[in-house]
């Protein structure tokens, strides 16, 4: 039986499967016009929409959204602002000198004088506040005025601080005696522009020291 002749032996080239299919595929996908038309052929640069999920496709681009900043809640109407609260706390309490005159003399001045003179070594000091006549002949025609009256050594030493204007910032006077009639009425703290509790106490102690009634005197 004659041997079958090989295509290569006969000088012929066997048709390639690719060559046979290429025209058909090209004809099916080739555009029929000059306008660009989308084809169904996949390309290397076109991602599969189903593969764009970052949970399943590690190469998919991941996008992050910055967290939204919450705006501070609007302050309720009528609510006091923090600055206003701080200012209210810093408000100073009214000064003792702003009290009504009689309250100041009885509640502030008398106890402060009692303490200051006692600290100077006077053990039997008696103090009182009264509105009475000035025990000095000729003073204001004998009219009454508020006074701080102090005495010790069984009344041997006595002093009076006068407030004719019923105002600690107004006119003030002083007198003292040792078992006799009071001395001449003296002006008291007339050179001070503003009178305070401490100044009223200091001025009296200084005057009594000048009389040599306190301490080792």
Summarize, please.
With 217 residues, this protein is α+β, with helices and mostly antiparallel strands. The protein is built from 4 helices and 5 strands; from the N terminus they run αααβββββα.
Would you give an account of this structure?
The structure is a single chain. Mean pLDDT is 74; it is low at 17-22. The chain has a domain at 98-210. Helix 3 (101-118) packs across helix 4 (197-210). Helix content is 25%, strand content 15%. The protein has a five-stranded antiparallel sheet with strand order 1-2-3-4-5, covered by helices on one side. The chain has helices at residues 17-29, 82-90, 101-118, 197-210, and strands at 126-133, 144-152, 157-163, 173-178, 186-187. The termini are far apart. By secondary structure, the protein is of the alpha+beta class. The protein is built from four helices and five strands; from the N terminus they run H-H-H-E-E-E-E-E-H. It is elongated and about 90 Å long.
